[in-house]
Amino acid sequence: MMSPHLRYQGRTTVAHQKLIDGQTADGARVVRRAKGFSDHGVITGLVRAGWLEPRASGPRGGTRWFTTSTGAAAAAAA
Prior knowledge:
globular, two-stranded antiparallel ribbon, alpha+beta, 4 strands
């Protein structure tokens, strides 16, 4: 399995930003953009790579994603 790209042409990617967001106390979340685009596919790829893990948040079954130790090491190396 390929690991997600964290840099592209010298700039950080959305995957790298999600790993950084996952290290905060609030965790990363899915951002839904205009015209039906969202970054749910990026988060799914990071979960499959073992770099993010889902945790329940709130009483209504919301989900936030938090960076694992391997994900933190990958973000630091990028």
